[in-house]
Amino acid sequence: MKIAQIAPVFTPGSSAMGRGIERIVVYLADELVARGHDVTLFGRGDLTTSARLVSPYAGSHQPGTDFADSWPHLMILLDHVQQRTSDFDILHFHIDPLHFPVFRADACKTLTTLHGSLETSDLVPFYRHFNDMPLVSVTFAQRQGMPKVRWAGNVGYGLPRDLYRLSRAHQGYLALLGHLSPNNHPRLAIEIARRSGVPLKIAATIDQDNQGFFEETVRPMLDDPIVEFVGEIRETEKADFLGGALAALCSIDQAEPSGLAMIEAMACGTPVIAFRQGATEEIIEPGITGLIVDTIDDAVAAVSAAGDLDRLRVRDRFESRFSIERMTDDYLLLYGLAQERADLGTPVQSAVPIDPAPHRPPSLKLRRGRTNRLYRRALSGQAK
After folding, report:
1. 3-state secondary structure of 34
2. How far is C-alpha 199 from the geometric centre of its chain's CA atoms?
3. Which domains can be identified in the chain, with CATH numbers?
4. What integer pLDDT is reported at residue 138 of this predicted model?
């Protein structure tokens, strides 16, 4: 199958979420190549991939070369893709849906994965107008608030098995990984650390637009000796940072639409503690890969309970649910259906939406048995 993967274009000040999307696209492209597919990746010139890399951006063909504004380069990218539409069986977009007007006539051979939050009300009339473009969500929670659109499927993130290694033992701290902003404040994570008495390490990026917020609001909170601000870490440092943690704190102050940070922690065997919002109930299996909480009191109790979770089992669940192989299998299923529609000239509207990721965790905070015992022991001060 001839497949085009269209990656996002990001500037030096782009968020960690943006760079995470770029990584997911590269992992998918590489796995497709490993399976014998002919893959062309449209993206930045400094991406490392086994796919055929096409980077039409002026000045971005050399590694390390950046540009201040991504929009002109994104327009150039879309023009290059449009000129080569007939070369591909599938056009898989991972960018903001600016391509909809240009590629609407070829909707049957396109998929657009929406990676970020879709809660902005201004997007509703846009998606309502282009409701014939096949879309893919990365979690079901992400779809909340969307109008009736053409969902082709739901495909959760997957990572290469060898990207992170299992850490069988922890070093007794809580880990917070992500980016800091007014909508993603570390205050609750710091409060959990203070009340539990467990040190907190924060590895986070700070976008250029949020430097003022960090200096005025966050930095004064870092004077507490129980908090250590590590700053931004490289991909190669994540395994040590996450693997050394007793637990990873995720979706603490902001609903997480994709769950990537949770999945990365689980790949290291590290349990996740997260508030019940966003995609947490789709990602975490309570009592197995982590604990879902509703209040600060619950979170403090969960810190004690997390130590009793089997880290090898956490890693096993990552491999069975969040591997790159599983993600690629899901996308190939969607590609096959799209190709059938294109070959037969079947309108997109007649496509039957499918759900290749059928795992829907129970709505209850805790499962029966061992997890309930862990919580009761933690709340009574008996947990390890």
Report:
1. helix
2. 26
3. 2-154+326-350 (3.40.50), 173-317+363-379 (3.40.50.2000)
4. 95
- Token pair 């637009």 in the structure block, residue: 209
Identify whether the C-beta of residue 113 lies closer than 8 Å to the C-beta of residue 92. Answer: yes
Q: How many residues does the structure list for the chain?
A: 384
* pTM score over 0.90: no
Q: What is the pLDDT of residue 348?
A: 53
DSSP letters, 259-276, are -HHHHHHHHTT--EEEES
CA separation for the pair 11, 72 (Å, rounded): 12
pLDDT score recorded for residue 237: 94
Residue 62, number of CB atoms within 10 A of its CB = 9
Q: In this structure, which amino acid lies at residue 194? A: R
State phi, psi for 280 to the nearest 5 degrees: -60, -40
pLDDT of residue 205: 84
- The rounded distance, in Å, linking the Cα atoms of 153 and 146 is 14
Give the pLDDT score at 67.
Answer: 54
Q: Contact 248/273 with Cβ under 8 angstroms?
A: yes
Which single residue is written with the structure tokens 């997390």? 306
Residue type, 127: Y
Task: Kindly provide the b/e burial profile for residues 85-96, where b requires at least 16 CB atoms within 10 angstroms of the residue's own CB.
Answer: eeebbbbbbbbb
Ranges of H-type helices in 256-365: 260-267, 280-283, 296-306, 311-321, 324-344
**Amino acid letter, 343:** D
Residue carrying structure tokens 């096959």: 336
Residues of the chain with pLDDT under 50: 11-17, 60-65, 350-384
Q: Which letter, b or e, does each residue of 183-216 get, where b requires 16 or more Cβ atoms within 10 Å of its Cβ?
A: ebbbeebbbbbeebebbbbbbbbbbeebeebbee
Residue 66 CB partners (closer than 8 Å, separation 6+): 11, 12, 60
Task: Read off the tokens for 128.
Answer: 């309502």
Strand pairing report for 151-154 and 173-180: unpaired
> What's the CA gap between 206 and 375, in Å, rounded?
35
Instruction: Identify the pLDDT of residue 63.
Output: 43
pLDDT score recorded for residue 255: 75
